[in-house]
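Appendix B. Worked example

We walk through a single record from start to finish. Start with the input: the chain for Phosphofructokinase domain-containing protein, Mantoniella antarctica, length 585.
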Amino acid sequence: MATALALAAPIRLPVRRSAHTPAGRPVGVSRTTPLAALGSPSHSVSGVCASNGVGIPSAPSSIRGRTRARTGTGTGGGGAGVAGGDSAPARAVLARDDVSDDGVAWDESARYTWRVGGANDIPIVHLRDVYRGTEPLVARQSPFCTKSSCPIPGLPTGARTPLNLNRTFVSELDRVLLKSMTFGSPDSLSAECDFECDVNGERLCNTCEFEPEFCIRAGPRAEIYFKPSEVHAAIVNCGGLCPGINDVIRSLVNTLEVGYDVKKISGIRFGFSGFFKDGVENLPLSRKTVRNIQSQGGSIVGCGRGGGDVNQIVNAIERQGMNMIFVIGGNGSHAGANAISQECAKRGLKVSVVGIPKTIDNDILHIDKTFGFDTAVEEAQKAIKAAATEARSALNGIGVVKLMGRQSGFIAMNAALANGDTDVCLIPEVDFAMEGPNGAVAHIKNLVASQGYAVVVLAEGAGQEYVMGAGGTDAGGNPVLGDIGPWFCKRLKAEMSCDVKYIDPTYMVRGCKANAQDSIYCAILGQNAVHGAFAGFTGISVGMVNTHAVFLPIERLIEKERLVDPDGKNWHRLLTATGQPDFVS
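Next comes the structure step. The output line below is what the pipeline stores for this chain.
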């Protein structure tokens, strides 16, 4: 249907150049287009930010020997992208230039101003918008410094070279495209379509335009809004265990202490209730206490579901003088973090709340993946391999592996695709029939008859219509599921003569330490969470979008769970690898 609509309707696309992107100009913005929707402080192509007051050089603008000059002027200009949209007007427009980009350079003396919070920016909240305390909210130069920077002789200790400043700080102008691919269909998420027709023929019928969205790029800012000596940071881990939690905690603590010289860091024990629960003391954290914790699984601050009494939590935050809250958790925990941020804003507190997405199911919207997912897939393959070995070694052997995935089947799909031994993979997003000539049982019978064995991978949320769960939800708000694994094995035994070997590696996968790839990812997330808090953002989460670290409003992440697309390429790749049919009744 979508294809038919796309063919029938003329697609009117705005002209957007992207073949060449000189420094200081974002992908997707024409040279003849006003500079809107992308940025904050006044930016000079030649070298100095006019509004930050610290003389931070911009990136070099000369690219590949381009020689022709551009003109434009502008001064002043707002802060970082914030909630509310147009927080600062555009003050400069690129000069019209119809000549090809070939051989073009930006004039080193020209200045350009970028507009804050345009229509295509995903806005995030800054403390400037919500803080109502008696002490002024003052921007100050960041002390953050890379190890490669070095003192300049004759200047105070810690002074950095212009080159290192340029490499260290992220410009407030930097943006990351939320979706790197847009489908040429009216139902594309990043398209706006008008299905009305102008009777006078002045407007095309059924016209669509791509509407890209841009995320705020994460990283250290030149200006911060907290004195490091006054910071009391709190780190809380909510929900269940996941590979990499200790890596994130270690990265948070090291960045706070080494990067910003923060002296007071508290670990909140056993989830949100640890803020206020009697008999639960905070765990003092420092670079020394977190040393080597990444080499073990679990969480040094524990974990816990529920306990999200927002008023009690914020009362405890005020009472203890905490002003940076880092919440490690999934959708439910992020909803709690968002509520805490909103309550702090309601009270006018100078508190920055930042989330770090954690779910082994990989079901968080928009971001490339969640930490621990790669490790979970790697560990799950070991269980599938063991099940395949058992099945091949038995007469009419069937190996059944149940993996995590309440509402999304990413672990099951990816582990089955990576392993190569799987014959059948069942996930929550795709309904399947057990009985009948086209059902799962008939297919598995045929597999055993033809090859002597079969290997089945189940996501825990698959086939819930066949099993009776306890009903209701757990302390974290998750539905209580029926156990599909034993039920599935019982049905196979009832329908055929077979030797079933059942493996449930859930807790083995959850409790293991992160692999190298996840450990690096955790370090990136922890560092950028601290940078976002010091920059004054709140109600945000950090993640990778199209391989770039970004800040996203929590509200966008928790709109719904991310699910496997049954019409998507990854699921079709899995079907091709397993050869399984659609199990229809």
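Two observations about the output. The chain has 14 helices and 21 strands. The CA atoms of residues 420 and 577 lie 7 Å apart.
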